[in-house]
Design goal:
Chain lengths: 249, 644
């Protein structure tokens, strides 16, 4: 396959940045999208041009490190992570536009690499159950209905990649935040801190500069892990009931 | 040096309890005066950092990824073992201990493995309390599945994403401590060296991957939780960033490296498709619970299959060779990983491989789908099937999967004593980074167990014993050793950037990988290993004179990051070859063709090789010194491992 790549190049956070066009040849349909970029980078390095920087690590769709806004969609045309996208999803001769995630709360570091530490801070605000190591009851002490455990697992599958933010016209982080709030609100172990958790995580999300939710559903449509927008509804319920009967005294 | 494993005296089952009692304690008010550095935030690192911070120590946690949640533990699929015996099928701490020792082909320490089995039950309790959504039965209790090398169901799991859920649990505990101000996080920061003062580890040198700043950090103890070195093979199931640099620098500063040649080749990975490939993808071992492994009975049928004249589903049962079920009737498809991998290699070497390259066998779900229905199979393995389809373009519900072994895990690592301390006082290694619990072969679902055991339940006790022996006085960074280590790191960066040769970093990495896979992979010979040693030495010279790294240090420079890692992999590769050459026996993942039984099984030599090979760095270009820690077995009888 022969392709034309239009890639966002930006030297560092303060650089203005812009698109640069690169032709690539000899792309096989079995390559992953990132392997195609590896090939480009090998060629660029050999020519003495700075390779394109992008985040990636596990390359099996679970670490959440890879990103890329491909032809106007986070993680490209399929509902999967970029590392699991293969070139058989593209046609010979196609032009592919590659950009970083675009959101105020995810500033560009270099080229296609962005800073997603805002997500860590949202979790630090309350995305946990306060138990210390040791001194916990036997694992089978509290039975949890399979349906509830499965729902919690559905929400817990979030990989924190940020595609939901990139997909949203408001750059809202509601899907990410609600996935963690849902997981812990569903489980009996999460009940004690249920209200404070919702309040604190939502407050942190707002403080990071993420936008509001207007229910367009773009996040759910682009989430590589199929996190459902019903989690946002649950988070809103959790949040409002927490605010009216707050434990934060 | 005599290696003192510090294994407590007394009966096996009482060692750990007794050791916990005899270990010194740090007074609660004094804990806040001790600083601890944790490098790596996977299962071992995150659980250790969180647990130590909860105790009151000041923790600094480092990872090269953009967030601690991305560490490669996250990719573990199948599950975590624990001797809960919830299934009432005869499991016990002793049985888990026995299975693990036997699975490791009797090359692990009894006391360490017993402790691992003992604390395994606490891990499950801990994770459930954190909100890890393990799979459950309809009655609301936890579900289990069976795994290779065991005849009981003791594996706990969260769909095919157990590692993800356990890591996110540990990450949440870590995040709580970050919020509490007890852990300071340093993401996108790579450890470049250990600082040793008067023989004790007192800090590290790091490079900020965004700004290139080289910095020092002082502490009373340093914990390396930096994972394995499978990427020495270039192609492996490890993440692209997984590397040996932290462990290797520690090695060069005095930490012995143990059993480096013990590497695990996982049997169920998606076969290699071409030269462009950057990594291999694992298909969880849990698939072997329901999938049946086979190749055509004859080479002729396999030829037709490879040419596309027939399809897998057209091959009749009598023309299929379910070779694991045939050779190992009692364990069948659930034999340990080393056995499954070696047998896949054998049938492919016989010309019975099933894909274009001839290096693949089938993993077939036809019978399981017929028996249980598609729904049941989809519930158990849905995400794995989807992933397979995504990568290969084939639907495993319709046609059998194709799999082939790939490098997955490294049992070798930094030598540690019972307290997880390396040969450098104050320097610890946890999880895959150490060598201690899996012998020559790790059983499935045991890596997660070990990572969390080390971090949650071992280090909080053993670290205190060391800290109690040193005064709670701040370690100052103005000691000349810090400046010296920092200057060394800066000089190395400058050297790499100044070579300005003609070949990319990946070019060298791929060549190293080929040498290692061909000569130090699934089957090894003296001749091949000797050749590999010469090839690696030549490659090292070439790397340091012809590598091409663009850009500067003072920016995000991914080529420079890789160059550091590959330079260390090259040196490690040579040590792995030395270790494989020294071990004139076959055991677990280390298979020397000269040493096999008439049936082609690994032939151990307990008389001469029942020891841990711990290598001491002797200086640039000097042959490393071999130290032996004899393995004493007081409780299990060493036998030829049989899964027939």
């Amino acid at each position: 396959m022969k392709l034309t790549l239009k890639i966002w190049r930006q030297k560092n956070a303060s650089d203005k940045g812009g698109f640069v066009t690169y032709p690539v040849d000899g792309v096989s349909k079995d390559m992953s999208f990132l392997e195609m970029l590896d090939v480009l980078n090998e060629q660029l390095t050999e020519k003495g041009e700075d390779p394109v920087h992008f985040d990636h690590d596990c390359r099996e769709g679970i670490c959440g490190m890879c990103s890329l806004y491909i032809n106007g969609k986070p993680h490209g045309p399929l509902q999967t992570t970029t590392c699991q996208l293969h070139m058989r999803s593209f046609n010979d001769g196609e032009t592919i536009t590659i950009e970083p995630w675009r959101a105020k709360a995810f500033p560009v570091v270099k080229d296609l690499v962005v800073n997603r530490s805002a997500f860590d801070r949202i979790i630090q605000a309350g995305g946990y159950i306060s138990v210390r190591t040791g001194g916990v009851p036997d694992a089978n002490e509290i039975p949890i209905p399979k349906t509830i455990a499965d729902l919690a697992m559905d929400a817990a599958q979030c990989i924190g990649c940020g595609a939901c933010v990139a997909a949203c016209k408001n750059a809202s982080a509601m899907l990410f935040t609600s996935a963690k709030i849902s997981q812990l609100a569903l489980l009996p172990q999460g009940q004690v801190e249920r209200k404070t958790r919702a309040e604190k995580m939502v407050a942190q999300m707002d403080a990071e500069g993420f936008g509001a939710c207007t229910n367009t559903g773009a996040c759910e449509a682009e989430c590589p892990k199929g996190i459902s927008i019903t989690n946002i509804a649950r988070m809103n319920r959790e949040y409002f009931s927490a605010v009216v009967s707050s434990d934060n005294v | 040096m005599i290696l003192d494993s510090k294994i407590p005296a007394g009966p096996l089952a009482e060692k750990w309890t007794k050791h916990k009692f005899t270990s010194k304690l740090v007074n609660p008010a004094n804990k806040r005066k001790y600083d601890v550095i944790v490098v790596g935030t996977g299962l071992a690192g995150a659980s250790a950092a969180a647990s130590l911070a909860e105790l009151g120590y000041n923790v600094k946690a480092f990872c090269f990824q953009d967030s601690p949640r991305r560490a490669h533990s996250i990719a573990a699929q199948g599950g975590i073992n624990a001797a809960k015996n919830y299934q009432n099928d005869g499991d016990s701490v002793y049985r888990l201990f026995y299975d693990t020792i036997k699975g490791g082909d009797y090359r692990a320490r009894e006391a360490n493995v017993y402790r691992l089995a003992e604390v395994s039950v606490n891990i499950i309790d801990q994770c459930v309390a954190q909100g890890v959504p393990f799979a459950r039965e309809y009655g609301g209790l936890l579900a289990n599945r069976s795994f290779g090398g065991a005849q009981v169901s003791r594996t706990f799991y969260a769909r095919g994403q157990t590692g993800q859920q356990l890591l996110l649990g540990a990450y949440s505990a870590l995040s709580r401590q970050v919020a509490a101000g007890k852990v300071k996080l340093y993401p996108r920061t790579e450890m470049m060296d250990v600082v040793v003062i008067d023989g004790q580890a007192k800090g590290i040198v790091t490079r900020n991957l965004i700004t290139g700043a080289v910095e020092t950090h002082a502490a009373h103890a340093v914990l390396l939780c930096t994972g394995g070195y499978g990427n020495v093979f270039f192609l492996s199931t490890n993440a692209m960033g997984s590397n040996v640099t932290a462990a290797w620098r520690a090695h060069k500063r005095g930490a012995y490296f143990a059993n480096p040649c013990f590497t695990q080749i996982h049997p169920t990975c998606i076969p290699v498709s071409g030269d462009h490939q950057s990594k291999l993808t694992l298909m969880s071992e849990s698939l072997r619970n329901d999938g049946r492994v086979w190749v055509p009975r004859t080479q002729e049928i396999a030829d037709k299959l490879r040419k596309g004249q027939i399809k897998a589903n057209d091959i009749k049962d009598e023309d299929r060779d379910y070779f694991l079920e045939r050779k190992y009737p009692s364990f069948g498809n659930l034999v340990p990983r080393d056995v499954a991998s070696r047998n896949a290699k054998y049938v492919c070497d016989e010309g019975r491989g099933v894909n274009e390259t001839g290096e693949a066998v089938f993993l077939d779900f036809r019978d399981a789908i017929k028996r249980d229905g598609r729904d049941v199979i989809e519930q158990k393995y849905g995400n794995l099937f989807d992933m397979y389809k995504q990568i290969t373009g084939e639907d495993p519900y319709q046609v059998p999967m194709m799999i082939y072994p790939a490098v997955h895990y490294t049992m070798g690592g930094l030598w540690v004593d019972y307290n997880l301390m390396t040969t450098v006082p104050g320097l610890y290694a946890l999880g895959e980074a150490n060598f201690s619990d899996h012998g020559a072969n790790r059983l499935g679902a045991s890596a997660l167990m070990q990572g969390l055991a080390d971090g949650y339940f071992v280090i909080p006790y053993t670290l205190g014993d060391y800290l109690a022996s040193i005064p709670p006085k701040k370690v100052e960074e103005n000691h000349p050793e810090f400046e010296k280590a920092k200057a060394d790191v800066k000089a190395r960066i400058q050297k790499l950037l100044s070579i300005n040769g003609s070949k990319t970093v990946d070019y060298f990495h791929k060549r190293l990988g080929k040498i290692m896979w061909n000569e130090c992979g699934m089957a090894r010979t003296e001749e091949g290993l000797k050749k590999a040693k010469a090839d690696i030495q030549a490659l090292k010279k070439e790397f340091w004179s012809d590598v091409k790294i663009l850009g500067t240090n003072e920016e995000l420079n991914q080529s420079l990051e890789k160059a550091h890692r590959v330079a260390d992999f090259i040196e490690l590769g040579e040590l792995m070859v030395d270790d494989a050459l020294n071990r004139n026996e076959s055991c677990g993942g280390h298979f020397r063709e000269e040493y096999q039984t008439p049936e082609g099984e690994a032939l151990r030599d307990d008389e001469n090789f029942a020891y841990v090979a711990a290598w001491k760095y002797m200086g640039e270009g000097v042959q490393e010194e071999l130290n032996k820690e004899p393995l004493v077995f007081e409780n299990v009888k060493l036998t030829q491992r049989s899964y027939k």
